Each structure stands twice: as structure tokens, then as C-alpha cells.
Amino acid sequence: MRRAPLAGALALGLAWAAPARAQWRVEGAALVGRAEHRVDAGYGVASSVGTTLGLRATVRRDELIEAELKALGGRLAADSVARDDRTMGELGLRVSVLPLPWLAVHGVAEVRAYDLVPALQRWTTLGAGAELRLAFADGALRSVVGVTLLPHVAASGVAAPDMGVASAVGLRMTRGRLVAGLSYDVERYAFAADPRLGRRREQISGLSLSLGGAW
Amino acid sequence: MRRRALCGLALLAAAALGAARPAAAQANTAEMLASAVQLYEDLQVERAVALLRQVISPSSPYEVSREQRVRAYTYLGAALAVLGQRDSAVVYLRAAIERDPFVDMDAESFSPAERAALAEARARTFAVAVRPVAADTVDPRTERLAFSLFTTHEAAVRAEVRAAGAGGAGSAVLLDGANAGLREVAWSGVTADGRLAPPGRYALVVTGRSDHTGLVDSVRVWFDVAHDRPALEDTLPSLGPADLLPERHPTSVATRDFLRGTGVAAAALLAHTLLRDRALGGGGRYAGTVALVGTAAGAWAFVSRQHRRDIPANVAENRRRLADRDRRNAEVARRNAERLAQTRLVVTPAAGAAVDR
């Protein structure tokens, strides 16, 4: 059972490391956006909204394999004085395989921390999904629609959710070396019902704008 | 019964004798002619004259070929000249000249008096002759095809190569002037319009007008011309639609671009509707923003595509392909020109009547 993921990882690594005549593309972008966190822990819906800033680096080889590292952070202001603001930091890695020019299959690993003074809540997610990338306007624009299932979600301080699902829909523009994008992201988690508090609900959605370059 | 058998045998014998006669006739003529020449050379001129008269006699039982008759006339004329019968000698020599203007007497075998008789016969007989064309292969750049023509005495001669049935096209004038006796004229294989003579049948037509008598004579010799050259290459055919890339987007591409842009809008709204927790709400502005931008992008792509349907990369590639084809065809044309320049003329005597008088 353990061997299959190991073999897959080994194959991926060998394919990545294969020498000579590979065509590499590196992209770097700055991210700015708005994030909205909403949670209902049995005490009503609590939301916090704020601006996020981040960086993203993407490396692609031969239009076949892609690795993306993203770091994002920001302060989300609570919607009520009775609730605390939260500082959010996120680090994520996504590795994609592109079997077709318009299809990417990816695996993700993400760590997100919420600094809820005095507590620090850490979320760890692992998931897999797929993304459609359809180019138009002579390749200058690309529509991106992706869905990721998050079967493994661990959150400190709360019972782990049964399942998570995330979606990202947006546009990417390429003009020479300039790369820009706009994306609507939503993540939703389903928790087991608590006999006292009911079912916990939590989601984070946001709009992010990226601007960078490619080499 | 016996009489019938004898009659049949007699008939068979007569038929066999008749079949053997033509073969024997010329052999006998040749024997008589050889005997006459031997007698002449042995200075038994009168006996030679008698034998030669038998050869040319209309009542001779033997067939006489044209060449044998010319030889007989020649020796008869020479013999009569030796016997002092000059007028008769000239008559027979003229008969020989009329049949073969090339007839000649070499100085070793004939005396000055005999040659003088021949000269008088030539002066009084006008004839034009051409030797049959020999098979030859000629490189027109460096070689010439030679023809031998002859006039019995001074005459205005025109020698012209004409293509059969060309109505004047494909001709070349080799000689237009005075001539007396044997002359060689050369032809480069090029017609009057400067082109290499195309393959086909040609005739060398020689026409002469005697300066002495004003009489006109002509002769025609036929020959065939073929071209020998390395095989030519075919040029590349024109590029058809299957060989070229489309240079303009079809109108459906604009629709596709519009759908891909607005598809983002639909996907954003769908993701917001299906994935967000309704109880929690929120996120609608973000989805709406992406939907609005996606729709705008789709509309812009549609309008842009309608105005710019050219595919620059394909246009450039098609131009490259056309230029490449033109370049290759130019190279083929150049190689073909080199091969055409190596064309050699293969000349062969025409089958059938090679010389017409």
C-alpha cells in the first residue's frame, strides 16, 4: 500500500530530473487580494475580512510538469468587536502534471496558521484535483477552472473536518514576459456534527490578483 | 501418262531456270564489266568497247544496276576518248554524269585526254549532287554536321536544311553562293531563329543554276535528328490548399473565444453557488468580480477576433513554403538548363528514299 505512492513519487522525481534539452519556464508573481473567512462554531456566523499579500513561484518543465510554491499572509478584521481579528499565514506547494495542454492534474500540500490571540490554530491539508486551462485570444488569455478535493485536513484545537473541497476560477494573461491573473478561490470544510454545538461550518473565500514575469 | 510426266518435268525445269536468272544476271553483268575493265587496262580498247556496248545494250539479257551502268558509261567514254572518238566519248560520259554527278577519273588510271573528255562532259552537263548523310552524333556547341555537295561546273548554289512539313520554320541556309565541284558545308544544328533543331525529319535541299547554260538542278537528302541529353527533372507542382496552412481564423473561433471568456464567468458563479456554504454566505462579490472580468474578456476576444482574423504565424509559414518551392523550382530550372545545354544531336539517314533527285 505504501509502495504505490513511493513509486509515483520516484517516477515524478526521475522525470523531473531527466537531463538535457528540457525546456524550463520559471514564473514569479506578487499576489494581492482580499480574503474572507467565515465560521459557524455553534455561536453564529463569524466573519473576518482583510487584505492579503503574497508571493508565488512556479517552475514548469517541458509543459509536462509544474511545481508551484505560494506564500500568503494578511490580517483579517473581525466583523464584530466581540470577536478577535485574526492574522493569517499560509504556505502551499502544488505539483501538477499536464497530460494535455488544457488539463492539469495536481496534488497539493498546504499549511495555514491563524493567529487568534492568544491561540494559534494550524491547519494542514493534503489534496488532489484537476484544472482546466483553456487558451483564447491567440493565447494571450487563459481561462482557469480547478477543483481540489482535500481528503486530509488536520486542524489544531478543533476536531478534524471530514472533508474539504476547494475551487479556483479565474483568468491568466500572458503578454511577452508579463504574466497577470485574477482568481476567485473558495475553500469549504465539512465537520462532524457535535451533539452540543451542532455541525461546525467553516469556509474561506477570496479574490486574488497576481502580477509578475516569466523566463 | 508418260507424255504428261515429261511435260511436267519440262515445265519445272523452265521455272527453275527462270528463278535463277535474276541472280545470275547481275553476276554476269559484273563479270562482263570486270572483263571489259581488264581489257581496257590491257590496252585492248576495241575489245573493251565491244564488251561495254553489250553491257549497256537494251537487248542485253542481263540486268544492269545503276552503279554498273555508270561504270560502263565511264569506261566506254574513256575508251572512245582513247580511240579518238571524242564526241562519242563525251556523250557516254555525260550519260554517266547524269546518273551519278560524282563520277570521276583518277589520274593514275586515266590519261589526260580521257580526263579532258570528262571535263568537257561536265562543262556541258549540269547536275547537282549530295552524298548521303552518314549517321553521326554531334555536340552543337563544339562540332558541326558536314555535308558534301557537288556541282559539275560553275553554278549559283543554295544549300538549305529544312524541317519536313515545317513550312519554313526550322530551316537553316548553309550555302548561298557560287560553287564549282566538290564542297563541304557544315551545319551547327541551329535553325535560323537561333534554336537548336528540334527532333524530327529534315532534308538538305541543294538547288543550283548553271553559270554556263542557265539550267537548274536540285537534289534533296533526308535525315532524321534526335536529341540525346540527360533526363530533365520535373518542377514541383503548385501548392494547393492541402499544402498550405489556413491564414485566417474561421468565424467559429470568435465564438469559441467568447465562450471561453464567459465560461469563466459561469464557472465562478457555479463555484460560488455549489461550493460555498449557504448557511455561512459571503464571497459573492469576489465571484461576481471574476464573472464580470471573464465576460468582458470574452466579449473583447470576440470583437478582437472579428476584426483580426489573420493568423500571422501561418501567413509567414505559407510565404516560407511558397518561397521554398520557388527556390527549388529555380534550382530545377537551372539544372534543366544545364542539361539542355548538353544536348547532342543524333543524326541518322532517313529510312526509305535517302536521296531524291
Structural topology:
The complex is a heterodimer of chains A (215) and B (357).
Chain A: H1 3-17, E1 24-40, E2 45-61, E3 65-78, E4 86-100, E5 103-116, E6 119-136, E7 141-155, E8 163-175, E9 178-194, E10 198-214
Chain B: H1 2-41, H2 45-56, H3 66-82, H4 86-99, H5 112-124, E1 128-130, E2 136-138, E3 145-163, E4 172-187, E5 200-210, E6 216-228, H6 251-275, H7 284-307, H8 312-341, E7 344-349, E8 355-356
Antiparallel strand pairs in B: 1-3, 2-7, 3-4, 3-5, 5-6, 6-7, 6-8
Describe the structure in your own words.
The complex is a heterodimer of chains A (215) and B (357). By secondary structure, chain A is mostly beta strands. In chain A, 7% of the residues lie in helices and 73% in strands. Chain A is globular. Chain B is an alpha+beta fold. In chain B, a hairpin with a 5-residue loop joins strand 5 (200-210) and strand 6. Chain B is rod-shaped and about 150 Å long. The chains are: A mainly beta (215), B alpha+beta (357). Chains A and B meet through strand 1, strand 6, strand 7, strand 8 and strand 9 of A and helix 6 and helix 7 of B.
Number of contiguous helices of chain A: 1
Spatial separation of the terminal alpha carbons of chain A: 40 Å
Give me the Rg of chain B, rounded. Answer: 45 Å
Number of strands of chain B: 8
Number of separate helices of chain B: 8
Helical proportion of chain A, percent range? under 10%
Strand content of chain B: 15-25%
For the record, give the distance between the C-alpha atoms at the N and C termini of chain B, rounded to a whole number: 58 Å
Q: Which pair of chains forms the biggest interface, and how many residues does each contribute?
A: A-B, 32 and 31 residues
Shape of chain A: globular
What topology, given as strand order, has the largest sheet of chain A? 1-2-3-4-5-6-7-8-9-10
Structural class of chain A: mainly beta
Mean pLDDT across all amino acids of chain B:
88
Unreliably modeled segments of chain B: none
Series of secondary-structure elements of chain B, N-terminal to C-terminal: HHHHHEEEEEEHHHEE
